[in-house]
Amino acid sequence: MTKIHNKIFNIKLKSPIPVDEFVEKVLYEPKVGYYTSKDPFGENGDFITSPTISNLFSEIITIWLISTWEKMGKPKKFNFIELGPGDGSLTKILINTLKSFPEINKATKIYLYEKSNFLKKLQKKKINNKKVKWITNFNSINNGPVIFFGNEFFDAIPIKQFTNKNNQFFEKCFTFESKDNISEIFITGNNQDRDQVRSFKTLEKLKFIEFPKKGFLELSKIIKKISELTGGILLIDYGYSTSRNLNTIQAVMDNKKISMENMFRNLGKADITSLVNFSLLKEFFVQNNLKVTNIVSQKFFLERMGIIKRAQILERKMTKKQKKYMSETLTRLLEEKQMGKLFKVIFGYKFNNNNFFGFE
Ligand SMILES: C[S@@+](CC[C@H](N)C(=O)[O-])C[C@H]1O[C@@H](n2cnc3c(N)ncnc32)[C@H](O)[C@@H]1O
């Protein structure tokens, strides 16, 4: 029998709690939540993300940033904000890579937007650089274009789940029936959520709907900043681009997917994510007056940005063992059956130039 029960997560017995509120508690409840109590990254953690697989990924994102800054006319003041920086791997490489490009290095302020205090400490230790500022809102950024970047940021923000039955709208909730027994129920959804969901063409005709209400609240703050200062948001995540009646919530523990029953028995010990609906994301950007690029696969984006060429250059100075390792990590990032196809990339922006690299 599980030792983890409702009281640890501050959840009342027999009181239905919407899926997103439930997942939020399990991931972020102080001291016991998944992201507030452990380091989940790397081979010894529960999952491995692109920046923790290969520095090449972070270098290529930096090269994309430099090319975008150039396309924006090399502004003297420029801001890079990493959303949900995890263990800090990407920004660490970004800072090192930018050192070889003095003009943009001088122009760029770097901000990290992180919700978990536990991960913030980890990031500060790893990055150890006074140039970087940690922020909880975007109020202090007032000068120069802004580029927001998130790798597996959006999928980590809990989503809501609804059903449409005979034109009636229901929300999926979880309930602790007793302290260690959780069940799933549907309650009548509220009208505001129903109207927001129904404003999206992408979700029309679906019987089962996944809706990133919390994610869209985060994006609204970001888009407000982009609209004020110009710039954009580059998002990379695992997801799909044709809306389907699918429950995509999944739990991962020790680098393996686990069942929902297993997740309920391991609250706070497993990561819980969902696939990102990229066509919905695109529609949201357009609703909010941003321009958008095509939705492309991670393989397409990284190859267009020259990852293979860069690997060939690095290879020249490598030992056999190093070459083998780099080739394995590249396969992982690019292979269609691994991260190459399922991971997708989109750039929403406000700027008069429309030809950003990586998407055509
Ligand atoms: C799956 S991890 C990805 C980490 C990193 N980007 C990587 O690729 O290795 C999700 C990250 O987003 C952070 N996060 C999730 N929701 C957030 C929010 N609403 N505001 C700020 N950070 C958030 C998590 O704490 C974590 O650092």
Q: What does this entry look like structurally?
A:
The chain is α/β, with parallel strands linked by helices and 360 residues long. It has one domain (6-305, 342-348): Rossmann fold (3-Layer(aba) Sandwich). 39% of the residues lie in helices and 24% in strands. It is built from 15 helices and 17 strands. Strands 2, 3, 4, 5, 10, 14, 15, 16 and 17 form a 9-stranded mixed β-sheet that branches. Strands 1, 6, 7, 8 and 9 form a 5-stranded antiparallel β-sheet that branches. Strands 12-11-13 form a 3-stranded antiparallel β-sheet. The mean pLDDT is 93. The protein binds S-adenosylmethionine. The site of S-adenosylmethionine has 18 residues, from helix 3.
Give a quick set of tags describing it.
nine-stranded mixed β-sheet, binds S-adenosylmethionine, five-stranded antiparallel β-sheet, single chain, 360 residues, alpha/beta, Rossmann fold
